[in-house]
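Changelog entry

Holo records now carry the ligand SMILES as an explicit input line rather than a separate metadata file. Below, a converted record for fe (ii) ion, shown in the new format.
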Amino acid sequence: MIEKLDNKLIKEEITKNGYYILDGYLNNQDLDKIKKSLLKTLHYIKPDSETDLEKKYYQIKKYNPTLKGNWFDVITSDICILQYLYSPAIINFVKDYFNTEVVFSGRRHVNVFDDENNKLLPAHQETQQLAGDVLAIWCPIYDTNVNNGGLAIYENSHKNGYFKHSREKSRSGDKRWTGGYNGVDTDIIKRFKRIELEVKAGSAVLFHSKILHCSYPSKKKETLRIVITERYNPLQKIPFLKDENAEMNIPMEGVDYNKIKD
Ligand SMILES: [Fe+2]
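Structure line, unchanged by the conversion:
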Protein backbone atom coordinates (compact mmCIF):
# COMPACT_ATOMS: atom_id res chain seq x y z
CA MET A 1 0.00 0.00 0.00
CA ILE A 2 1.31 3.44 -0.90
CA GLU A 3 2.28 5.29 2.24
CA LYS A 4 2.67 8.83 1.00
CA LEU A 5 0.64 10.71 -1.58
CA ASP A 6 1.39 13.87 -3.50
CA ASN A 7 -1.57 15.72 -1.98
CA LYS A 8 -1.04 18.92 -3.96
CA LEU A 9 -0.98 17.16 -7.32
CA ILE A 10 -3.99 14.96 -6.58
CA LYS A 11 -5.97 17.96 -5.33
CA GLU A 12 -5.20 19.87 -8.52
CA GLU A 13 -6.20 16.91 -10.69
CA ILE A 14 -9.49 16.42 -8.84
CA THR A 15 -10.27 20.13 -9.17
CA LYS A 16 -9.52 19.97 -12.89
CA ASN A 17 -11.00 16.58 -13.85
CA GLY A 18 -13.24 15.65 -10.95
CA TYR A 19 -11.22 12.50 -10.36
CA TYR A 20 -7.70 11.12 -10.10
CA ILE A 21 -6.39 7.61 -10.70
CA LEU A 22 -3.89 6.67 -8.02
CA ASP A 23 -1.80 4.01 -9.75
CA GLY A 24 -0.65 1.08 -7.63
CA TYR A 25 -2.32 2.17 -4.41
CA LEU A 26 -2.38 -1.49 -3.37
CA ASN A 27 0.48 -3.85 -4.23
CA ASN A 28 0.21 -7.53 -5.17
CA GLN A 29 0.69 -8.60 -1.58
CA ASP A 30 -2.25 -6.43 -0.46
CA LEU A 31 -4.41 -7.80 -3.30
CA ASP A 32 -3.52 -11.38 -2.36
CA LYS A 33 -4.45 -10.74 1.26
CA ILE A 34 -7.86 -9.37 0.25
CA LYS A 35 -8.54 -12.22 -2.19
CA LYS A 36 -7.52 -14.84 0.37
CA SER A 37 -9.81 -13.34 2.97
CA LEU A 38 -12.76 -13.29 0.55
CA LEU A 39 -11.95 -16.84 -0.56
CA LYS A 40 -11.81 -18.10 3.04
CA THR A 41 -15.23 -16.64 3.70
CA LEU A 42 -16.61 -18.48 0.66
CA HIS A 43 -14.95 -21.71 1.85
CA TYR A 44 -16.71 -21.26 5.17
CA ILE A 45 -19.99 -21.67 3.28
CA LYS A 46 -18.81 -24.83 1.52
CA PRO A 47 -15.20 -25.98 1.92
CA ASP A 48 -13.16 -27.67 -0.80
CA SER A 49 -9.73 -27.29 -2.36
CA GLU A 50 -10.54 -24.50 -4.86
CA THR A 51 -7.90 -21.76 -4.67
CA ASP A 52 -9.25 -19.36 -7.28
CA LEU A 53 -11.60 -16.69 -5.93
CA GLU A 54 -13.48 -16.22 -9.21
CA LYS A 55 -14.10 -19.95 -9.62
CA LYS A 56 -15.12 -20.35 -6.00
CA TYR A 57 -17.52 -17.42 -6.30
CA TYR A 58 -19.35 -18.94 -9.29
CA GLN A 59 -19.38 -22.32 -7.57
CA ILE A 60 -21.08 -20.87 -4.47
CA LYS A 61 -23.45 -18.83 -6.61
CA LYS A 62 -24.62 -22.04 -8.25
CA TYR A 63 -24.64 -23.98 -4.97
CA ASN A 64 -26.75 -21.50 -3.04
CA PRO A 65 -27.53 -17.99 -4.36
CA THR A 66 -28.93 -16.87 -1.01
CA LEU A 67 -25.73 -17.76 0.85
CA LYS A 68 -23.75 -16.07 -1.93
CA GLY A 69 -25.87 -13.00 -1.15
CA ASN A 70 -25.14 -13.36 2.55
CA TRP A 71 -21.42 -13.56 1.76
CA PHE A 72 -21.82 -10.28 -0.12
CA ASP A 73 -23.49 -8.75 2.95
CA VAL A 74 -20.73 -9.74 5.40
CA ILE A 75 -17.61 -8.98 3.38
CA THR A 76 -18.21 -5.26 3.76
CA SER A 77 -17.28 -5.74 7.43
CA ASP A 78 -14.07 -7.68 6.73
CA ILE A 79 -11.37 -5.80 8.63
CA CYS A 80 -8.69 -7.09 6.28
CA ILE A 81 -10.39 -4.97 3.61
CA LEU A 82 -11.35 -2.00 5.76
CA GLN A 83 -7.74 -1.19 6.64
CA TYR A 84 -7.12 -0.18 3.02
CA LEU A 85 -9.99 2.30 3.09
CA TYR A 86 -8.60 4.09 6.12
CA SER A 87 -4.86 4.15 5.45
CA PRO A 88 -3.04 7.17 6.92
CA ALA A 89 -2.09 8.33 3.41
CA ILE A 90 -5.67 8.43 2.16
CA ILE A 91 -7.17 9.95 5.31
CA ASN A 92 -4.41 12.54 5.42
CA PHE A 93 -5.18 13.44 1.81
CA VAL A 94 -8.92 13.80 2.49
CA LYS A 95 -8.23 16.06 5.49
CA ASP A 96 -5.90 18.14 3.37
CA TYR A 97 -8.35 18.30 0.46
CA PHE A 98 -11.22 19.62 2.56
CA ASN A 99 -9.00 21.45 5.03
CA THR A 100 -10.64 19.65 7.92
CA GLU A 101 -9.42 17.69 10.93
CA VAL A 102 -12.46 15.42 11.10
CA VAL A 103 -13.57 12.87 8.51
CA PHE A 104 -16.55 10.50 8.69
CA SER A 105 -17.22 7.24 6.91
CA GLY A 106 -20.16 7.90 4.60
CA ARG A 107 -20.73 4.44 3.23
CA ARG A 108 -18.09 1.76 2.92
CA HIS A 109 -18.84 -1.03 0.58
CA VAL A 110 -17.36 -4.01 -1.24
CA ASN A 111 -19.06 -4.08 -4.63
CA VAL A 112 -19.24 -7.40 -6.42
CA PHE A 113 -20.24 -7.42 -10.08
CA ASP A 114 -20.40 -10.70 -11.97
CA ASP A 115 -21.24 -11.65 -15.56
CA GLU A 116 -24.98 -11.28 -14.92
CA ASN A 117 -24.50 -7.50 -15.03
CA ASN A 118 -27.54 -7.02 -12.83
CA LYS A 119 -26.03 -4.51 -10.42
CA LEU A 120 -25.12 -1.73 -12.80
CA LEU A 121 -25.90 1.76 -11.62
CA PRO A 122 -27.23 4.58 -13.79
CA ALA A 123 -25.27 7.85 -14.03
CA HIS A 124 -25.36 9.73 -10.75
CA GLN A 125 -23.45 12.06 -8.49
CA GLU A 126 -22.65 10.90 -4.96
CA THR A 127 -25.53 12.04 -2.77
CA GLN A 128 -27.40 10.98 0.38
CA GLN A 129 -24.35 11.49 2.53
CA LEU A 130 -23.84 13.24 5.86
CA ALA A 131 -21.97 16.10 4.16
CA GLY A 132 -22.91 18.02 1.02
CA ASP A 133 -19.55 17.47 -0.68
CA VAL A 134 -17.62 14.24 -0.28
CA LEU A 135 -14.69 12.38 -1.81
CA ALA A 136 -15.08 8.76 -2.86
CA ILE A 137 -12.53 6.00 -3.36
CA TRP A 138 -13.12 3.21 -5.88
CA CYS A 139 -10.44 0.53 -5.81
CA PRO A 140 -10.87 -2.66 -7.87
CA ILE A 141 -9.04 -5.84 -6.89
CA TYR A 142 -9.27 -7.19 -10.47
CA ASP A 143 -8.39 -5.24 -13.62
CA THR A 144 -11.33 -3.28 -14.99
CA ASN A 145 -11.62 -2.90 -18.76
CA VAL A 146 -13.83 -3.58 -21.76
CA ASN A 147 -13.97 -7.32 -20.92
CA ASN A 148 -14.50 -7.10 -17.18
CA GLY A 149 -16.54 -3.89 -17.03
CA GLY A 150 -15.75 -0.98 -14.77
CA LEU A 151 -16.40 2.63 -13.83
CA ALA A 152 -17.36 5.29 -16.37
CA ILE A 153 -17.22 9.01 -15.70
CA TYR A 154 -18.76 11.91 -17.60
CA GLU A 155 -16.09 14.40 -18.60
CA ASN A 156 -16.26 17.82 -16.92
CA SER A 157 -19.63 17.03 -15.33
CA HIS A 158 -18.28 18.20 -11.94
CA LYS A 159 -18.13 21.81 -13.11
CA ASN A 160 -21.87 22.48 -13.05
CA GLY A 161 -22.80 21.90 -9.43
CA TYR A 162 -25.26 19.20 -8.42
CA PHE A 163 -28.01 18.06 -10.76
CA LYS A 164 -31.47 17.01 -9.76
CA HIS A 165 -31.64 13.29 -9.00
CA SER A 166 -34.70 11.14 -9.04
CA ARG A 167 -35.51 7.56 -8.32
CA GLU A 168 -36.68 5.91 -11.47
CA LYS A 169 -38.04 2.42 -11.50
CA SER A 170 -37.42 1.36 -15.06
CA ARG A 171 -34.88 3.58 -16.73
CA SER A 172 -34.35 2.29 -20.29
CA GLY A 173 -35.56 -1.14 -19.27
CA ASP A 174 -32.26 -2.14 -17.70
CA LYS A 175 -32.24 -4.68 -14.94
CA ARG A 176 -31.66 -2.85 -11.71
CA TRP A 177 -30.12 -3.80 -8.48
CA THR A 178 -32.69 -2.16 -6.25
CA GLY A 179 -35.36 -1.50 -8.84
CA GLY A 180 -35.03 2.19 -8.08
CA TYR A 181 -31.57 3.60 -7.82
CA ASN A 182 -31.13 7.35 -8.01
CA GLY A 183 -30.05 8.81 -11.30
CA VAL A 184 -29.86 11.98 -13.34
CA ASP A 185 -32.09 12.76 -16.28
CA THR A 186 -30.92 11.43 -19.66
CA ASP A 187 -30.98 14.96 -21.17
CA ILE A 188 -28.33 16.04 -18.68
CA ILE A 189 -26.21 12.91 -19.15
CA LYS A 190 -26.15 13.44 -22.93
CA ARG A 191 -24.38 16.78 -22.48
CA PHE A 192 -21.17 15.08 -21.37
CA LYS A 193 -18.71 12.73 -22.97
CA ARG A 194 -18.70 9.33 -21.30
CA ILE A 195 -15.27 7.88 -20.55
CA GLU A 196 -14.98 4.23 -19.58
CA LEU A 197 -12.01 4.14 -17.22
CA GLU A 198 -9.65 1.19 -17.40
CA VAL A 199 -8.33 0.86 -13.88
CA LYS A 200 -5.82 -1.83 -12.99
CA ALA A 201 -6.23 -4.06 -9.95
CA GLY A 202 -4.95 -2.19 -6.90
CA SER A 203 -5.13 1.26 -8.48
CA ALA A 204 -7.71 3.56 -6.93
CA VAL A 205 -9.94 6.24 -8.39
CA LEU A 206 -10.44 9.16 -6.03
CA PHE A 207 -13.35 11.28 -7.15
CA HIS A 208 -15.42 14.25 -6.08
CA SER A 209 -19.12 13.74 -5.37
CA LYS A 210 -19.98 16.20 -8.16
CA ILE A 211 -18.65 14.06 -11.01
CA LEU A 212 -21.31 12.04 -12.82
CA HIS A 213 -20.39 8.37 -12.91
CA CYS A 214 -21.87 4.96 -13.56
CA SER A 215 -20.89 1.34 -14.09
CA TYR A 216 -20.22 -0.21 -17.46
CA PRO A 217 -20.92 -3.92 -18.02
CA SER A 218 -18.69 -6.95 -18.23
CA LYS A 219 -18.69 -8.70 -21.60
CA LYS A 220 -16.87 -11.87 -20.66
CA LYS A 221 -18.42 -14.88 -18.94
CA GLU A 222 -17.33 -15.91 -15.44
CA THR A 223 -15.52 -12.66 -14.69
CA LEU A 224 -15.68 -11.03 -11.34
CA ARG A 225 -15.26 -7.36 -10.55
CA ILE A 226 -14.72 -6.72 -6.86
CA VAL A 227 -14.28 -3.11 -5.84
CA ILE A 228 -13.67 -1.67 -2.42
CA THR A 229 -15.30 1.71 -1.92
CA GLU A 230 -15.91 4.39 0.67
CA ARG A 231 -17.27 7.94 0.77
CA TYR A 232 -15.22 10.25 2.96
CA ASN A 233 -17.37 12.95 4.57
CA PRO A 234 -15.62 16.03 5.98
CA LEU A 235 -16.90 18.03 8.96
CA GLN A 236 -18.38 20.55 6.55
CA LYS A 237 -21.81 21.24 5.07
CA ILE A 238 -23.56 18.89 7.50
CA PRO A 239 -27.23 19.95 7.88
CA PHE A 240 -27.79 17.26 10.52
CA LEU A 241 -25.53 19.13 12.97
CA LYS A 242 -27.02 22.55 12.24
CA ASP A 243 -30.74 21.95 11.90
CA GLU A 244 -32.67 19.82 14.36
CA ASN A 245 -35.20 18.88 11.66
CA ALA A 246 -32.57 17.68 9.20
CA GLU A 247 -32.13 14.00 8.40
CA MET A 248 -28.76 12.40 9.06
CA ASN A 249 -28.15 11.61 5.42
CA ILE A 250 -29.09 14.50 3.16
CA PRO A 251 -32.12 13.34 1.14
CA MET A 252 -31.64 12.95 -2.58
CA GLU A 253 -34.92 14.60 -3.48
CA GLY A 254 -36.31 17.89 -2.22
CA VAL A 255 -32.92 19.39 -1.33
CA ASP A 256 -30.85 21.68 -3.55
CA TYR A 257 -27.36 20.42 -2.87
CA ASN A 258 -25.93 23.62 -4.36
CA LYS A 259 -27.44 25.62 -1.54
CA ILE A 260 -25.94 23.61 1.33
CA LYS A 261 -23.54 25.99 3.05
CA ASP A 262 -21.75 26.15 6.36
FE1 LIG B 1 -21.61 6.34 -6.99
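Spot-checked after migration. Residues 124, 126, 213 surround fe (ii) ion (CB under 6 Å). The domain at 7-259 is CATH 2.60.120.620 (Jelly Rolls).
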